[in-house]
Amino acid sequence: MPNLALPEQRNDPTFEDIWDELVWRGLVHVSTDQQELKALLAGDPITYYCGFDPTAASLHLGNLVQLLVMRRLQLAGHRPLGLVGGSTGLIGDPRPTAERTLNTPDTVAEWVQSLRAQIERFLSFEGDNAARMVNNLDWTAPLSAIDFLREIGKHYRVGTMIKKDAVSARLNSEAGISYTEFSYQILQGMDYLELYREYGCVLQTGGSDQWGNLTSGTDLIHRVERANVHAIGTPLITNSDGTKFGKSEGNAVWLDPSMTSPYAFYQFWVNTDDADVVARLKVFTFLDRSEIERLAAATEAEPFRREAQKTLAYAVTALVHGTTATDAAIAASAALFGQGELEALDVDTLRAAVAELPNRATGEGTLVIQALVDTDLCSSLGEARRAVTQGGVSVNNRKIDDVDATLAGRFLPGGVAVIRRGKRTLAGVFLDDASA
């Protein structure tokens, strides 16, 4: 059985320094001079930053990679700046194929507060290397367009800007690119310059798909201040089959529990493929090298036990949502398959679990056999009747032996019921319009 305990947040002391650990965990895809970075991170505390744009109400798993990089660097003694882009969020960095829909200033301001609260949960704001939160709207809003062009724009060359991957991809697309999104890299470069001047910030981290924006800042600081600063681009996390990690038909896995429930979040991790689980443990947990290597061996020897996946799912879900919500998600998963009482689950967890099953809204007087058909557990009423008479149907883990049985009186608190056909084929029903 996996050790279902939240790993202590610490860096692995078996590595020579934090740089070597970042490399081992697969967190360095591209960077400025590696030898200089290794020496810098092994020396006296530095100030570093990562930016998060409020283009949605919540951060997602791609952002979690950056939050954990920030935390690892802080544990190594360095000082983090968490930047929420109150100004850049009004624009958004260029997407590969089309212009972003611009959100209203009020919406962006609301999302700034949401993201700030999420970021603060992953960093420490105490001690000699306490984190700080900053908002680039503070130094961008007072700047006039003329001042922006004179003081910042003059240092950029259009020929260099259009060679950036994000820009060139859009220039070659049918949509083209507006000046608004084209200017994004200048704004991000200005952020780095401001943080360098105000806090002595000398390192920025971000996803490798942001490399053009990251180097916009390093180049600007070198040109204006004649100083060398650094950037690290983490790899884009993809599954072993090449699909983008954390996405399913365009839907992100969010850190906000109202957007992705702790139950769904846990299920996402516990269903990690064997080929991906070791890499996920390295990136998303604080487990040390020896424990990850042990779990890798266990996956190779006894993959059916899924020890690595259960360890990963517990560690990441507890990190993001806390141990109470994680324990509830595990209890719900067990109860769905008859290894616990569904009635004992809290309403929110139960509804979230049922929402992850194939489900339908229905009336209280609906026949169980009709519900079997409606939820696609059976293809016809005749097949549903046979399933009941053969003893293969249950509602809320209680066997149904009457083909005329209805759902009346069988709904659990929250207006849900779980229907099972056979041992492991499940569906859910929500009372009337209570579907999630």
Question: What is the CATH-assigned architecture of the largest domain?
Answer: 3-Layer(aba) Sandwich
Q: What would CATH call the homologous superfamily of the largest domain?
A: HUPs
Helical fraction equals 40-55%
Structural class: alpha/beta
Query: Mean pLDDT score, rounded?
Result: 93
Q: Could you please say which CATH topology of the largest domain applies here?
A: Rossmann fold
User: Runs with pLDDT <50, length 5+?
Assistant: none
> What spatial order of strands do you see in the largest sheet?
1-6-5-2-3-4
Instruction: Quickly name the level 1 CATH class of the largest domain.
Output: Alpha Beta
Strand content: 5-15%
Largest sheet: 6 strands, mixed
- The rounded Rg comes to 25 Å
Number of strands: 13
Overall geometric form: elongated
Per DSSP, the total helix count is 19
Give the CA-CA distance, first to last residue.
33 Å
Query: How many domain units?
Result: 3
Describe, in short, the structure shown.
44% of the residues lie in helices and 13% in strands. By secondary structure, the chain is an alpha/beta fold. It has a six-stranded mixed sheet with strand order 1-6-5-2-3-4, with helices on both faces.
